[in-house]
Amino acid sequence: MLAIEKLNQFYGESHTLWDLDLGVPAGQCTCVMGRNGVGKTTLMKAIMGEVAVKSGQLRYQGDGSEIELTKKAVEARSRMGIGFVPQGRQIFPLLTVEENLRTGPGRPGRRAEKKPRAYLRAVSGAERDEAPPGRRFIRRATAAARHRPRAGDRA
Prior knowledge:
Layout: E1 2-11, E2 14-24, H1 40-48, E3 55-62, E4 65-68, H2 74-79, E5 82-85, H3 97-102, H4 125-138, E6 143-146
Parallel strand pairs: 5-6
Antiparallel strand pairs: 1-2, 1-3, 3-4
């Protein structure tokens, strides 16, 4: 589903990802582990298009066709079904649960179901942790990167 070959990324003169190769088959979970500063976050950002790559290939197979991602914008990657749950809550605390789940781009032609009015209230502490992964499920992401999951996290 995701194939990374000879990926190189730089921040200025600093070479952060060096000829990285990684394959993530469809239906599989892959964990990227390492000490601080080895490029885990940079890899997630490169997959999502948040940082530019200098060379290499990022290929994604979704909807039956293989697509080269390195020149695709973040929005295009999201529309293809690639999701990213960043570190931290990154929610809007004054919005309701439903409003937080609706933030960000959705999949084309998809509409979130209307929920009973009882669910439209402020976000509790536990829900603040659940909202970012929930956004990914609402968008029906077919591939997802979870940045720094913790014990007890779902998805």
